[in-house]
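tool=predict chain=A
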Amino acid sequence: MLEYGSLEEARRFVSTPEASNHVTGRAIDIGPTDADSWLSQHGADYGLCQTYANEMWHFELSTEPGGECPVMLPDAS
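tool=predict ok
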């Protein structure tokens, strides 16, 4: 939390285990940048969508394979 200055600011980037889709297996963080770029272009083919505008590495199962991704949220808060 000290890195972000406040709990509210940290919540924009870090979720609790109770609220994280990583814990349920419905979210992944991916890198390097080339992989992020590829998944941004092709992820919906597999149901994976970039969820937050401020986290280019974070993808969640947000649509049916081949569907359309929902509009990104500004951040995780």
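Residues 7-61 form one domain. The helical segments are 7-10, 21-24, 33-42.
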